[in-house]
Structures are given as C-alpha cells and as structure tokens.
Amino acid sequence: MDYDACMDAGAAALLALDVGGALARFDEAIERRPESYPKQWMRGIALYFAGRYEEGAQQFEGDLDDNPEDVEEVVWKAMCDMRQHGAAAGQARMLPRPPKDARCPMDQIYSLFSGAANGADVLAAAAGDATAAAYGHLYIGLYLDCLAGHGHPAMLGLTKAARGHYAAAAAAPSDDFMGKLSVAMWKRCSAEPLPPPVGGCGAVPRAGFVGKCGGEYSSAMVGCWQLSAGHHGDAPAQAELFARLKANGEHGLTTLDMGDIYTGVEECAGEWIDATFAATGAPPPVEIHTKLVPDLDLLEAWTDAHTDAIVRRSLNRLGGMRHAGGQLNLVQLHWWQWHLGDHVAAYRGLCAHPLVKRCGVTNYDAVHLQELLDAGLPVASNQVQYSLLDRRAEQRLVGVCRAHGVRLLCYGVLAGGFLSDTWLGKADPLEGTPDGGLTTEALSSGLSNRSLVKYYLVIREFGGWGRFQELLAALRQVADRHGATVAAVAQAWVLAQPAVSGAILGLSGNPRHLQCARRAYDLAYELTPEDLAGIAAVSDRSPFRDAVYYAAERERDGPHGRIMRYNCGALHTEAHWEEAVRRAARLLALLRSGALPDGDAAWRAQHMIAEFEAFPPHGRDTSLVGEFRAFVPDVAA
C-alpha cells in the first residue's frame, strides 16, 4: 500500500477500535513518508487507546511542530500523561494553551483538563451549537476516564458518568472524524459491563486557577472555621486534630481554608506544619487559603500598612511558609460595607504585596467584583456561600465570574450539616419561634454551634422548615437512584454548576465523610435531567435565590447581621500583642533547638521582628526583638 492507502486503512481500523491494526497501518505510512510523523494525530489516539501512553504523549507533542495552534493535540498529550502518571501529575505536565484555536468550546475543554473549569463550563459555552456540544460531551467523557484511569487496564467507559457523556456525544455527533470516533466509542463501551474501579474511589481531583493567577488546589477543601475559638464547645484535642488533617490530605483534601479572623486557626495550622516537618523532615503537602478581613471600624481609615501588618501576622502564624516560597498561597479580601473606605484601593495594595502569591475575594457581589476587574486587578477566585438553599450567586455573579475566569470556591454547600440524611424527617429545632424572635440567644439555645445558627437562618430565607424538608426528600430520591447520600447529592449539585471549582467542607475525621467528598465529584457528572428537575421543583421556589448576593448579611440590624462579628481582627490590640508574645516564645524555643535550617530560622526571625516593630509604641517590653535579631545574620553582624 502507498502512503495514502495506509492512512485510510489506519483511520478505518481506528474507527473500528482495532487499535493494533490502526497502529500497524500508521507505522507503515511513516515508513513510506518519515516526514509525516508530526502529522500523525490519529496514531497518537491509537497509542492512547493501546495504553502506550508515553509514546502517545511524544506523538502529540511532536504533532505541535506541524499544528501548533490545536488545543486537541495538547489535551490528548495531557490525557496520556494523566493515564500514565495519575491525574494530578498529568495536569502538572500540561503544555500551555495554543492561543489561536478559537473553536468553541476548546478554551473550556483545555481549562477542564488543566483543572480550571468543570463540565458545566464546557457545556454552557457550547450551548446552542450542536458540533460544539458534541465535542464538549466527548472530551468530558475522556476527562472522567482520565480521572479514573491511572493503572486501569480498561480503555474507555470506566465510570457511569463518562459513559453518559459518550452517549450524548454519539447521539448527535459532529460531522467529522471525531464524531465518527465518538459513535464507535459509545458502541464499544455500551456493549461491555462497567469495569470495577482500580484502587478504590481515589483521591479528590485537583482544580486550578485561571490564566496568570495559576496554581492548584483540591476541588474539595477543608474548611477550618469550625476550629475557631467560640465556634462550638467540643473542639478536638491537638493530637486528634493533627490526625484529622493528615487523614484529609491522604484523601486528596489538601487545601485548607481559613481566615485571619478565625481565632486560633492560622496558628494551629502553623503548629501542624512545624510538627509534621519535625516528624518527617518535610512539610505536609498542603495549600493554605486564608483571608484578610479588615475590622468594620477600620474600613474608612484602611491603608496598605494595615494590609502589610495582617499579611505578616498570618505568615508568622503559619510558620513563615518558607516551604511555599515564603508567600501566602491565596489571600481573599472581604469588605464589610461598600460605602465605607475604598475596597478597590485595599485590594490593589493586597495584590502588590510581595508576601502574597495570588489574591482573591470572598463574599463579593457582581457589582463590586466588576469594579476590581474594571480596575485591571487579577482576581483568582471569589469564595461565596452557595448551596441548594442559597442560590443568590446565580443572579449576576456567576455570569461575571464565567466571563472573567474567576473561580467560585463555595462554602455552606452542606449548610453546616443540615443538607444531610441526619435532618430528614426531623422537627424544626426552633419550632414556634417567629422571625422577629430569632435573637442570637434564641438561636444558640436550640442549635449547638455557630454553623447551625448561620444556616438555620438561611433555611428560614429558603422558605422555612417545611420547604427544607421537601428539598431533603427530593434529594433522598435522587440519592436512592445513585446509591448515594443526601450530602453527596447536595455537594454534587454545587460542583455541577458553571464557574464552580471547589466545595469547602468542614474538617472531619470520619472516613465516610471523606469518601463522600470523592463520590460527590463523580456524582456531579452523573446527575440526570430527571434528577435535576426533581431538585429544581423544590429549590426553584425559594424567594431567596432572587436576592442580591450577601446583601442580607450586610444589614447589621437584620437577623443575619446580628449574628456577625464585625471586629474580630484585633490588629495591634493588647490581644494581638499577647498572641504575638506567645507565638514568639514558641518560635524562640524552636530556633534555639536547631531544628530549623539556617535559612528558615533567619526568615522566620526576620518576619517575627517585623510584626513586633509594626506595633505602635505603648511602653511594651520589646526585649524579644533583640533575641530574634541573633538569628538574622545581617542584623547580628
């Protein structure tokens, strides 16, 4: 056969999923025309399906020499890497996006594989375009196979969710080779039983920020608000807490979400990092997402000096973050009242801070997020309250985030535990209490922690306890169809929404809760139109979804505002001084023990000095500063 005949025979074999035959014909074609190697993208697909992932990655990377503006070449190379090395390692090897491939929805498909988009983003971009939708479903299916496929002997259709997307792609295929391949893939996997998973359910997948913001995090994050002082009275002992943090990381929940006003949390995380380093010689593999929440009383007078003081305090609490380049991985700005101070100037100062790697915001509505974007400031993420009980973010905010690549990191997805089987069929814990009687004291008397207090108010806004029970019943029906829990379905629904990259879950030491987090990610791609319609029949009736995002919480005299603590930062107060002295004593003991490398010791001593020197002079004993100077060589000399 001549070259063209070999290529035609190879293509026909590939469409029959005769992978061995296809490779034989493509190799013959290369023998006849060696210069054709960079054009052999079909050979790369055959190598992928043959499980020859290293060769496949080489083929697709070589193809870019001939076709440098094709996103699909980059994506198939990433798929080979994900199947060979694991999903996270494969994403880390992903090549840059070819900038000139304008086909819809290639931008979102690239972002899906890089972790910076989800399936809903892909399909939303493809809406109204049958060819784009077919490509979207095909690549979502391939992506899901890659998540499940490391070490798996099966070729395709490894999960129920992947098969659903292959079916959708084959039902209305594109009029080209990939459309024909979609039909063949669906025909093959639909004729075979679903293969058993390899290595259990696996870790929670990774997600990523868009564009220049860069960086990865776990799609399920560990929320640490519940660890703050005063949240509830049954906080775990330190040994148990450290064990839980370790267990969460082993299940893939490597991102810890906290804030400068979460009393004691940053410091606790820093102690865990130090303890892990002392025990293993290396810090734990975690990403820290923290917040900068200026006190309400300081907003009008806020300056970059305030920002600097809080950033340095957070860095010191967290152990200097020397292992992370000496920077805070993500700092998210919250602003209590828009009419006070200048939130854009404050955010600009945060973005310029040398100790902050990337910046985002929390609880920003669409109007004020747009103000930051119009000022040309990079916004990696917006952390928002988003659940089936609270869909206010959908009104305008989701659209702004989608348009500008701002990822939504969602808290309250399980409403503090209310969205679970535990509460199905249960009586209203505050039954008979009128809305006007929902004082902090009344709420606290019937609910065991601040999370439940907060989200009980959301249930009232949603439509009350009766409608909440209707929602739980609808979620239970969906869960029954999928062999899941109510919590997994509730979390999956959030993860299936456009612009959403992560769900923040309370720290748990329960293995079932950690497995639920992984199950929810798969379930986000398995929810059917019937499932979604059943949920929407209840959730769409909530009047709260039409409200402006976070406006209720900014009404200080309203039920949400009354439970807020607006001045918890305590910057440069006596409480801050006492905390700094306590941390300093612990750090001095660590420095004197010689447990830290010289570079780390000097780094941490230098930043501790800077925190003390930022305090206004009030006759306090500053002798600790002199003790730290001995560990900074340039100063000591």
Structural description of this entry:
This protein has 637 residues and is α/β, with parallel strands linked by helices. Helix 5 (71-85) packs parallel to helix 7 (106-114). It is built from 28 helices and ten strands.
Q: Which structural class should the secondary elements be placed in?
A: alpha/beta
Helix tally equals 28
- Between the first and last Cα atoms, what is the distance in angstroms? 79 Å
The count of DSSP E runs of length 2 or more, i.e. the number of strands, is 10
**Biggest β-sheet: strands ordered side by side in the sheet:** 3-4-5-6-7-8-9-10
Rounded to an integer in angstroms, the radius of gyration calculated over CA atoms is 27 Å
Described by strand count, sense and barrel closure, the largest sheet is: 8 strands, parallel, barrel
- Large-scale geometry: globular
Please give the share of residues in helix. Answer: 40-55%
What is the overall pLDDT average? 92
Low-confidence stretches: none
Give the DSSP E fraction (strand runs of 2 or more residues): 5-15%
How would you describe this structure in keywords?
28 helices; 10 strands; alpha/beta; single chain; 7% strand; two-stranded antiparallel sheet; 637 residues
